[in-house]
């Protein structure tokens, strides 16, 4: 959606799926990213798009084994994937956008007493 929205607004964009560049091992659980292979794939498939002035959109925590079988890198994998992409591309920063319903004073999954903060300032 983000790549399509950028394109509609005149910013050249491309969606490059994680399976195209996030290489993992084939362990049955908690697959580990293979950083050397992943960096090579990022440099060959994503870096040229960025160098050409395109925004390269990604989403999720999905990768693929060296055999091309779809894998996941587990809980927190979306943020981890973004960090891996940023490192592999030598990015100055990464931005992580989520679709949560606001900010809470605690983690709702960890605390039944967590409350949504309705108004907050930078201070």
Write the topology of this structure:
Blueprint: H1 2-8, E1 13-15, E2 23-24, H2 35-45, H3 47-51, E3 55-57, E4 62-65, E5 70-72, H4 77-89, E6 103-104, E7 116-117
Strand content: 15-25%
The average pLDDT value, as a whole number, equals 85
Shape: globular
| Overall SS class | alpha/beta
Q: How are helices and strands ordered from N to C? A: HEEHHEEEHEE
User: What integer value in Å does the Rg equal?
Assistant: 17 Å
Polypeptide structure, described:
With 123 residues, the chain is of the alpha/beta class. It contains four helices and seven strands. A hairpin with a 4-residue loop joins strand 4 (62-65) and strand 5. Helix 2 (35-45) crosses helix 4 (77-89). The mean pLDDT is 85.
């Amino acid at each position: 959606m983000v790549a399509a929205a950028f394109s509609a607004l005149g910013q050249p964009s491309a969606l490059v799926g994680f399976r195209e560049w996030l290489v993992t091992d084939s362990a049955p659980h908690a697959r580990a990213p293979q950083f050397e292979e992943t960096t090579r794939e990022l440099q060959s498939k994503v870096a040229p798009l960025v160098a050409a002035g395109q925004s390269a959109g990604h989403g999720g925590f999905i990768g693929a084994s060296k055999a091309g079988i779809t894998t996941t890198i587990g809980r927190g994998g979306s943020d981890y994937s973004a960090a891996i992409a940023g490192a592999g591309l030598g990015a100055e920063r990464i931005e992580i956008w989520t679709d949560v319903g606001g900010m809470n004073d605690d983690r709702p999954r960890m605390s039944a007493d967590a409350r949504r903060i309705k108004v907050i300032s930078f201070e």
